[in-house]
Amino acid sequence: MSKPTDSSIFGKMTSRAAGKRQIKPTAVLFATLNENHPSSDEEDEDFEGPKEEEGSGDSGDSSEESNSDEEESEEDEEEEEKDQEHGEVEEEKSIICGVCVNQKKSDENFLNCRKCGIHVHKSCYKGLQSSEDVTSEGLWFCEPCQYGYLDPPFCEFCPSRFGAFKKSDLPDRWAHTICALFTHGIVWVDDDSLSGVSWENLENSNFGRRVCSACSDKIEARFGISSRCESGMCKEYMHVTCAQKLGLLVDESGDSEAAVPRYFFCKKHTNLDNLKSFQRKFEGWEKAEGKRITAHRRRKALEASEDEQRVKMREMLEELFEDENTKQKGGVHGGEKVKQARLLNSSSEFFDRFETKAEDSGLSKKEFRDPFYDIKLTNSSHVPIGFSKEYLDFMHVRDTQIIPEEEEKLRKVRELLAETKAKQEKKSTSKALSDKFRANEELIESKQEAIERLHKILAELGDLDLRQSTERSTSGTVAKKAKESYSCVVCKKATEQHKQTQCDQCHNSYHIGCLSPPLTRLPKRNNFGWICHECNESSGDESEVMVPMETSRSSRNRRPPARLSAFLSQ
């Protein structure tokens, strides 16, 4: 191949290194390449073959090219599989930096912690150790091991516990080196050695404000600080370690002209070509980290010389913090910095401790986590949460005044609700009774109408006049009402009305026992009248008493009683 072909892009496409897939050029590409070669036109003009041979040659060439393409594709696939397997083996055997996970190309030597076994690039982790101590004795300790940590500390910016950590300027607070480098607003006590992570320029309200879109757990998504995608108006937020796991971090710290040396793009705004290989590498590194942490717990204690080196490195770091505190006290400040409050559910350390305590108390993990899903992202109270005097006063007022007032309001509302409910029940009961009474009245009216119809039918069947029966009933009622009671003239008593008889002449009433002589029964008045003994004595003619009444027919004469005849004979 000629030099111009090699220098052009078409030449590079058609001539690749061994083991790489060759790109078959098209007819247009061949024409373009032939134009660049002046000798090719002369050769084509000089050579003239028969048309039949040319046709047969083209068909043969096409079949040979197709077969060769199939063979080359199969060989390329086999070579790619071998390269991938070989690469995975190399990745397992190779040393991976605990900060950049070998995403940053560096030819520097690795620093290996003597105690926990983590590997880091010297340019990624840095530190206060002198190069002479590291090269001569080979003893180096990461900052958590300098302070005697057996388990990895908790990062203040993300939920992960893998990787290399740095101590902050606050006691017992740690952060990933990669999180401190890529989180905007983070500063260092010493920039040259990357020692002393400080977030004094950040508001504590930033912790837990944004939800990480890469975290599967909603509670862990609010741990720490989620950084924003650097692409324009994108609203995707992620933890730095979550973005690193997906291969989205961009480090341009070597470029002095870069406005933002370290940032990341989300999946929508990044090139996804080389991410899968890095993600596989990161997964392998996470597995190795888990094994390293487990092995670190089982390691033996350090020797005396090694422990002296560890203590020496820790003292150097503490001296740095003391010098920084001295500078701050000697400088001019606007006053003591106000302590800021922070939500407990934004800290992975405290959340893990409270969760462990809840499990020890018999509470399940689900029961402990469920209330945290409903916590608001912002604090609605005008007093910031914290152990300050203002917040304690607010809590005292809330417990002594606000809560009792609200409870009293709640009690009144409940009483009003109970009264309203009772009135409603009473109203519904009265309505039901009135409906039932109305239904009974309608039933009675219908039955009365039915009875009247039945009576009318029976009267018609019996050939009875309804009006006559009504008159008879009314006359009988009047007669009964007109009947009066009589009193005996002799005993002056109105008792035993059924044993009294009335004189037809004087109309006085006598008991049959009070008569002289007394009677055993009432006198019959079918065809005769009856007078008392007084009327009988006053009358001279006895025959007048026994005068028969005018009748249509006479009955046989009856003999008077023996007592009466004896009385008359006297």
UniProtKB/TrEMBL annotation:
InterPro entries assigned to the protein according to its UniProt record, in alphabetical order: EPHD, Histone_Mod_Regulator, Zinc_finger_PHD-type_CS, Znf_FYVE_PHD, Znf_PHD, Znf_PHD-finger, Znf_RING/FYVE/PHD
Keyword Zinc-finger set for record: yes
Pfam families named among the record's database cross-references: PHD, zf-HC5HC2H_2
Coiled coil location: 403-460
Biological-process GO terms, alphabetical: regulation of transcription by RNA polymerase II
Transmembrane segments: none
Record bears the keyword Plastid: no
Acidic residues biased stretches: 61-82
Protein name: PHD-type domain-containing protein
